[in-house]
Backbone:
């Protein structure tokens, strides 16, 4: 058919770029319990990241009651990204890894929720070297040295459970008109081993404490440079 | 009397023409009836018309994937009656669509729509001069004249962003008209059978039923009250059913018609959805039409 004149104009709406930014991994991590940890491997799989509304009381209540669940390739929504991403914290030190762009509706958003879960076969960042991340949410390996006794211990933590991490912004993001915002999720794995007495605690207890430390180690940094909690 | 019939014939089908569609780009009803009319055709008459239409639509879940559509159409049409039993019309729309996504992103599209050809034949009348009862059959075809809008990766955009279906769509229908001065009644059934169009998309098959009554207390003014029922089948994208297509909807319509000159008629009609049983998360809103018709 004859091509008739036409025109199309697109105006971008509210957009939030989300990126993960692991801290650089030092040669040795000194913990608050007097241990030195030398990591050889540190990986985490992020299954979903979601903006949370300030007034989502019912949703928060439900999540308090219900355990976190893994869903293979959760579909993206305007407030969540559902494509799993394997982050190798030893290799991506200090560099930002773009997770995607959220397109949320107008509203007040007070934080983000990050879901750690085992990877899908087609998860981004999954390679032959880290295929075991299909069974683990987090994998940490290395050596631990007790600075008081000089004793050396092997560290291997394989966390298979699905868990979520709540991150609060230091100020609400209020969207009432088209805008581009950037949220960088900082992952500080140098604090993952605080509060752990490797010499006394069982492997299960160590893994549980690492999980708790991971939850508290995430921070959200907004584009204007103001850090979240 | 003749003026009364002319007004009824010209304007009654407006809402058969402009009721909102179940999918974003389906042509709706029979827009050419406005220019063809449903009275007995007058041999060798040429008629033109222009109409502006507005309608709104929303598809998808709130805060998830909702698209809100506002559409304005300007339709230019012409009709010719070679005999007193036959009328042929052509209608070309210019379409403006404003699609708003949940994050307030907007897409504005100006484009020509699908060219519409109709032929109406009177198959029965109670008498040749000033008939009081007319039965007509209608056949037609929508041509894929609308342009295709593409996304940044070069892929065709969904139908909601298109000004037409981009498909060859046959149309068939029948109507009955009764004239008892100062009243007239129009009943019409129209079915549209879309073929595969833009991006391997097949718009819904659609059946529309219009019932309209008109009261004309003065020769220059008439009032209309009516209902339009529409039932749509499912639409498909690449062979997969679009969950937000299909179902039925009934509009209530209210209109006014003026005849400022013997060759000129103006009209305006508002329509409000009364019963919505559309599939998926699909809501249609208020619609409005205004226009004029001129006999050459």
Residues:
């Amino acid at each position: 058919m004859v091509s008739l004149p036409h025109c199309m104009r697109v105006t971008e709406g509210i957009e939030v770029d989300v990126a993960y930014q692991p801290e650089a991994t030092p040669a040795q991590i000194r913990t608050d319990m007097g241990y030195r940890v030398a990591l050889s491997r540190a990986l985490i799989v992020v299954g979903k990241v979601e903006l949370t509304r300030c007034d989502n009381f019912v949703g928060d209540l439900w999540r308090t009651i219900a355990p976190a669940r893994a869903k293979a390739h959760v579909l993206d929504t305007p407030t969540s990204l559902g494509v799993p991403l394997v982050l190798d914290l030893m290799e991506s030190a200090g560099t930002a890894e773009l997770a995607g762009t959220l397109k949320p509706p107008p509203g007040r958003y007070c934080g983000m929720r990050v879901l750690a879960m085992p990877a899908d076969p087609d998860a981004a960042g999954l390679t032959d070297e880290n295929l075991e991340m299909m069974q683990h949410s987090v994998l940490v390996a290395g050596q631990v040295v007790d600075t008081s006794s000089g004793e050396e211990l092997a560290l291997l933590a394989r966390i298979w459970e699905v868990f979520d991490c709540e991150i609060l912004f230091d100020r609400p993001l209020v969207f009432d008109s088209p805008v581009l915002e950037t949220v960088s999720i900082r992952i500080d794995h140098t604090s993952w081993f605080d509060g752990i007495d490797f010499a006394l605690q069982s492997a299960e207890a160590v893994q549980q404490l690492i999980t708790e430390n991971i939850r508290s180690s995430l921070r959200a940094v907004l584009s204007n440079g103001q850090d979240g909690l | 009397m003749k003026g009364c019939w002319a007004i009824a014939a010209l304007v009654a089908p407006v809402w058969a023409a402009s009721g909102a569609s179940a999918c974003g780009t389906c042509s709706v009803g029979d827009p050419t009836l406005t220019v063809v009319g449903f009275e007995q055709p007058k041999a060798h008459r040429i008629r033109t018309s222009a109409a502006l239409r507005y309608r709104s639509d929303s598809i998808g879940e709130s805060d998830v994937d909702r698209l809100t559509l506002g559409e304005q159409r300007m339709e230019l049409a012409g009709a010719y009656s070679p005999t007193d039993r036959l009328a042929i019309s052509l209608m070309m729309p210019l379409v403006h669509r404003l699609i708003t996504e949940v994050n307030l992103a907007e897409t504005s599209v100006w484009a020509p729509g699908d060219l519409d050809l109709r032929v109406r034949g009177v198959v029965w009348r109670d008498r040749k001069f000033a008939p009081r009862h007319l039965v007509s059959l209608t056949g037609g075809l929508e041509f894929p004249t609308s342009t295709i809008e593409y996304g940044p990766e070069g892929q065709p955009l969904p139908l909601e962003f298109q000004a037409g279906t981009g498909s060859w769509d046959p149309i068939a229908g029948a109507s009955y008209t009764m004239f008892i001065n100062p009243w007239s009644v129009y009943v019409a059934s129209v079915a549209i059978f879309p073929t595969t169009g833009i991006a391997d998309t097949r718009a819904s098959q659609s059946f529309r039923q219009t019932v309209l009554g008109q009261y004309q207390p003065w020769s220059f003014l008439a009032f209309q009250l009516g209902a339009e029922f529409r039932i749509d089948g499912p639409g498909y994208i690449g062979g997969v059913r679009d969950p937000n297509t299909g179902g039925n909807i009934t509009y209530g319509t209210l209109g006014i018609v003026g005849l400022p000159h013997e060759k000129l008629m103006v009209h305006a009609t508002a329509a409000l959805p009364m019963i919505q049983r559309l599939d998926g998360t699909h809501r249609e809103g208020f619609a409005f039409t205004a226009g004029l018709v001129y006999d050459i």
Remarks:
- Chain B touches chain A at residues 62-65, 101-112, 143-145, 147, 149, 161, 163 (CB under 8 Å).
